[in-house]
């Protein structure tokens, strides 16, 4: 390993101590056992000609240098790294350079933090937390508040049959009219019962002249 690569590896070790504290800002992936994942690091300009991929394994609490990739697609793996399981590539666009790391045959012991560092760029892209074989957390559906049904005003039309729900608008006025009529009739009878009785004129027969 060259001196520049060793310096970059030392810088990655220092970064791995800091980056796990930013767990909330990284992407969390839940691949299946023996599944694959593709991780990407994007450089905003063409000054990022080289990138170093590394990972921090939670099970062993160790940092591993995975591979080195340049913009031409040339790659070099770290020591004791399975070449067949880690593939690197680079894509140069008009304004950005995108480096991709493809992980193959993921196992539970591969769980940890994965990220990259650009050799000539003072920036650390946001990494990925990979949890093979772990089910993603289920998000509870939002509770929907049910609105109480609003009673619509009953608009009754003058017809022979009132619509259902409007009987009270016809029944109560009818009862009120009957009560008013009964009170008026009782008052009239009471009024005439209090009047003085008039004498009846009896027609007396006139005696015939004798």
What does this protein structure show overall?
- Pfam families: V-set.
- Residues 1-24 form the signal peptide.
- Residues 20-116 form the Ig-like domain.
- One of its GO terms (molecular function) is coreceptor activity.
- There is one protein chain.
- The protein has 210 residues and is of the alpha+beta class.
- The chain has two domains: 3-130, Immunoglobulin-like (Sandwich), CATH 2.60.40.10; 154-195.
- Helix content is 20%, strand content 26%.
- It has helices at residues 3-18, 167-193; strands spanning 27-29, 37-43, 50-57, 62-70, 75-77, 86-92, 97-103, 112-118, 128-130.
- The strands form two sheets. The chain has a six-stranded mixed beta sheet, covered by helices on one side. It has a three-stranded antiparallel beta sheet with strand order 2-7-6, with no helix packed on it.
- β6 (86-92) and β7 form a beta hairpin.
- The longest helix is centred in the C-terminal third of the chain and has 27 residues, at 167-193.
- The radius of gyration is 48 Å and the shape is rod-shaped.
- The N and C termini lie far apart (175 Å).
Write the layout of secondary structure elements.
Elements: H1 3-18, E1 27-29, E2 37-43, E3 50-57, E4 62-70, E5 75-77, E6 86-92, E7 97-103, E8 112-118, E9 128-130, H2 167-193
Parallel strand pairs: 1-9
Antiparallel strand pairs: 2-7, 3-4, 3-8, 4-5, 6-7, 8-9
Task: List its salient traits.
about 210 residues, alpha+beta, Immunoglobulin-like, 2 domains, 6-stranded mixed sheet, 3-stranded antiparallel sheet, about 20% helix, Ig-like_dom_sf, signal, coreceptor activity, immunity, transmembrane
